[in-house]
Structure formats: C-alpha cells, structure tokens
Amino acid sequence: MTKSHLFWLPALLIGWLLLTPLTMTAQNNEPIPVYILQGDGASTPLAGRYIDSVGVVTGVGAAGFYLQDPSGDGRSETSDGIYVYTRARPAVAPGECVLVRGALISEFYDKTELSRVKAIEPSNLCRTTAVTPVVYPILAYGARPQDLYEAYEGMRVTLPPLASVIHGPTKRYASGEAEIAVALAHVQPYLSDGRVFFDEPGEQAQLVYVSGALGVPLPDLNHGDRVRITAADGGAAHAILDYNFGKYQLLLLPGAQVERIAPASRTPIAAAPASGEDITICSYNLMGMGSGAAQYLDPTQYAVELRRRALTIAEWLSGCLVIGLQESGQPKDAEQLAALLRSDFGIDYSVTALPGPQSANTEFPLTNALLTRNDRVQVLTAENPQACSPVDYATVDPGACPIGQFPLFDRPPLVAELAIQDGWGGETKLTVIVNHWKSKAGDESVNLPRRLRQAGAVATLVQERLSINPNAAVVVLGDLNDYYGSEPVETVRTLPEPDLVHLYNYLPPLDRYTYIFNGASQVLDHVLVSPALVKRVGQVQIVRLNADYAAQHAPAADNVFHASDHDPVLVRIWPRGVGWIAGNVGHPGVQATLLDAAGRSVAYAVSDARGDFRLWNLGDAAPASYRLLLEAPPHLTLALSDVAISVISGENRFTTTARHQASVAGASIALWSASPPPAQ
C-alpha cells in the first residue's frame, strides 16, 4: 500500500480518544484518519463513537459511498478505506475530497462502517485526491479469506485480468444490483467434481464474489460459464474490496467488465409425461408468484411471469399429475395458474389452496397450494392444520391456539387425501403434505428451533396416518428451507414410526441440489415417502431449469429459465412396483445402454464426474432380464462392458471398474521390466 509513515499520529489520536467520553461527538476536532477507524483487527476499536473523518471518495452506490485515506499509515495491517452509509444516493463523486461530520462508527453484520452522518462537506484536508489502488491479493487455495482480505476492507484495488468459472449465476436484486460468484481459473481444478456444495466450507471459501453495485452492469451468466474480468480495453480493472453479509466482494468500478469466454455445456431434460401405468408427483416453488407490493404488482409483468411458470409445468414437468406448489401469492394466484394451464395448454387442472396467515401479507403474500389433474386425480379431503408453540413467532392466526400458546406456521402445511386412477381401472390412495418451512433468512438461532418444531408437527401428521395403517402411502414434499441431512429434515424423516425414506438417497450425490446460494449448491426442496411407496418409486428427477441459470432482466414470456430460483422435482410412482439401476463405473463419461430381451434399448445414461449413473423405470414388480452395454471414452479401459443383469422391484446396484489406458500400459511396462530379458 502507498501510505505515509506518520506513526506518531495514530498514537496521539488514540490517546485523545481514550480521554473523550463515549457520548461526545468529534465535531470541531481534528478528523480521525480512516485507518485508525478500521484498526488492525476484525472490528473497529472505536465502535459506538461519533466521529469526523476525511478522505477521497472512491466509489458511489445507491445508499452510500466509499471513503479512502489517499496517503495511509504505511501499515499493511490496517485498511485505509471505509463505507459511509447515507440511506439514499449521496451527492458526492469519485475523486472528491470530503469531510464526514458526526458519523457513528459501528459494525454492521461485521462490516466496519460510518452511518447517521450529520454532514458531508467538500474539504481541502486531503494531501492528494489521487488514490493509488493496491494490487488485489489473490487467495491461495486453502487460505481463509478473512486472514488476507480484512486489512483491505473498503479499499480500492486493481485486478489483473481474472479468468474465472461461474459458480453463482447472475443474481439480481430489486435495487437493480447484480452479483456473481466465481472460482478463479487456478482454483477451479482443485474443486472436487467442478461444483461447490454447501457442506464444503473449505471450497466455498475459495469463491470470489463480484458485484455491479457501483454501476457496472453484469451479463446473464450461468453456472459453469467461463469468464474474464478486465477493463473495457482488456487491461487491468479496478474495484473496491468490501465485506457484506458474511462474504468479501469485489465491487467493480466503472470501466470494468465481465466477459463470457465460453458458455457452459448443458442440455436440460424435460420429464416424461405420466402414462396410464404410473403416477407423477412434483414439488415446485413458484418464487413469490403473486401481486403483492414486493412481487409482480404490474399486470403486464404478472401475466409474463405466470406464463413462464405455466410453461414449466406444461412442457418441462409434462403436465405432472400432482404438483405441490410453494410461494403461490394468494389462493387466487394458484387459481389463475390453473386457468392458464387449462386455456392455453389444454391441461385440466384443479387447485386446492387454503389461505394461511401469510396469505394476507400485502407486501409478499405466500400460500401453499396443490394442482391436481382432473382426468386422473380426485381430492378427497384437504386441510392446512396449524400447530402451536410456547414461543411467540409473531404469527397472527386468530383462534388457532389456546392462551399461552402461539401459532407455529405462517404457511401451514397443506394436507390432501387423494385418489388417483391407474390404467387398470383401479385407484391408488395417497396422502400428500405440501410444506414451506421457515426461511433461513435472518437469525438462525431463532429460525432453526422453529423449523425443528415445524418438522415435529409434520411428523405428527404423518404418524397419525401410519398409526392407523402402517402401509399408508404418504408423501412429504416441498421447500423445507434446510439441507439434505440437516436436523429438521432428519427429524421429519425419523420421528414417525416407521421412518420415512428420503428419495434423494437414490440420486447420485452430484445431483443433490435444487438451489444455489452464494455459489454453493444445496438442497432446499425435498421429497420423503413412507416405506409402502419405496419399491414403487421408479424415478427421481430434478428438472434443471432454474438454479444453474441467471436471473435475467425482463425475461420473455416464453423463457422458462430461472422462472424460479428453485429447481422443480418430479417423482414417478408405479402402483404395481418397478425396478431401477444405480450404477457406478468410477469415471465420468461412460455411456450405459440397457437392452431388453428383444435387443431394444430401454434406458440410456452417461456417468457423471464421480462415475455415477441411473437407469430408471425398468419393468414392473416381476424380475426382468436385461443386457447392459458400457462404452468408455478412448482413454479408459473397462473391466466389464457387456453384462447380463436381472432387475427386481426397487433399487438394483451395479458397479464395475475402469482404468486409464496409460496406467494399464504403465503396469505392463513395469511387469515386463521386472522380468529377465529374453534369451538371445
């Protein structure tokens, strides 16, 4: 850093501050340099004081600006920059020297900032208005971001051209700001299987968060896209390195750009429609599909967004028979979705939607709902039972709980008893429980106990049915707002007797995500079933339309990508039972083709980065014989490539090994070298 060496000044000012009462402002006193405000630790040593400070404006945002001491103190432990929060866009410009008067210095979610500013004035106290940026410190793999970046919080940095891979697709906020999460090119090879998951904090720490909050537009970028961060002329870009809500961000300064070098290669796969022999059950979070003040208040935009979700259901979920919906705004919004599906897509859906406490929220109403196809599904009963808690969560549901108890759900679970017709003239009785549990947003010390209580309440609903009939067919689905294997999800799984089965057990580990937050892939949307259904599950499919894709500006009505921030989930049930194959060959890119007794191809898959593949919907409850053909890429040799396999109802496991040809050749050479040379 370019900093002066006036070491006596910090000591003098700190001594003065120690003698100043906490309630006294620093007005009419010497302004305190930014680097003293920041201190050399994670927090300001002056928290709670009202002070004056001076510096050069380096960046201006919608609700504040960044102030930097252009000379500094010559110490690498202290940052020379700080954020000044002004609520509205301030009347300052980059390059101006300004005096900030009577500002409170504090930690806002661990970010040192100035707020409650009394006045901002032009100043001649800056020795120079030229701020020399420091070179952005590249994080080494395995290092902790806070150990390297904290000393640069709020400072201007220069970025060498950064080749990167997108892990957090473009996220857009109501304010117009956008953000992406990237892995720098030198880090990407170290990330296991090319994707960062929520339970890999070491890998998530290697991600770099890039923001356009200071006026730089970000393009629509999807997971896996390769990009380069440069200046418009291809040279070094400038940014401010900041800390916001648990992550360090690069706030690009005007003149910087993010350029897509190569798009990710992906082909989304639509679900197959239900036949007369199977039943499809889906879960779909509609992402605030309502007309509340913070949703789609404009009628034209509302119509566009409603159609995008209808397209998802009609064309990508192929008219799923039973769909548990979360984040329908009000019951009427689910009704309008069903009406659009009937009128424009010819799918005869009925809606079951019962208002809950949050349905009446004028800003962001939310309601659980159920879409069912009239040609095959009859809703026998439906209710949204409230549960009660000794803790007051400020949910208003008059008459729902006795005195001393308080409503637990602002979005009560929707419990529906269904009768579904099959292709043989019979029917399947099914209980579906649609859930949307408490969000993780806010204080998790409050949210997590609430989700645990909600999990227990839903487990009780399940137990009521299993106690009457241990073979009852029960499906618990929806946005549980917690991870696969988390305590709340495990609570609803294990509390009933017998345990429920989480159907993601059957997915390859790399498929277990429905949502991406801060670049980390995670499951928020779940499907659990009672044991009676396990051998009747023929397929579990997460339809990849949303999580991996950018949130776009003004998307067209026929654009289904990122119509929601959650991927929808489909489960296929075969009332007579069905088999499927869980395969692993240890390497990616192996093609698996299943042939029936007549030699016809009945299933096909390609192994993922961990070697996993799935062949779904094979036959019925009776054992069936197949031939499995495996074709490896040119660099691999398979131990087995043509296998006779018998499939029974439920999961059938298949594993084999593959080796790189180079290692096979190397082993042959080693064996030959260890042998005595042939006789001459």
What order do the helices and strands come in, and which of them pair?
Blueprint: H1 8-18, H2 34-38, E1 50-60, E2 64-68, E3 81-85, E4 97-108, E5 111-115, E6 119-122, E7 134-135, H3 145-149, E8 155-159, E9 162-172, E10 178-184, H4 201-204, E11 208-211, E12 226-231, E13 237-244, E14 247-252, E15 256-262, E16 279-289, H5 299-316, E17 322-328, H6 331-345, E18 349-353, E19 367-373, E20 377-383, E21 388-389, E22 406-407, E23 414-421, E24 427-436, H7 444-468, E25 474-479, H8 487-494, E26 501-502, E27 515-517, E28 520-522, E29 525-529, E30 537-542, E31 569-573, E32 579-584, E33 591-595, E34 601-606, E35 612-618, E36 624-631, E37 636-638, E38 642-647, E39 650-655, E40 658-660, H9 661-674
Keywords:
680 residues, alpha+beta, OB fold (Dihydrolipoamide Acetyltransferase, E2P), Deoxyribonuclease I, Chain A, 4 domains, nine-stranded mixed sheet, six-stranded mixed sheet, 35% strand, globular, disordered N terminus, disordered C terminus
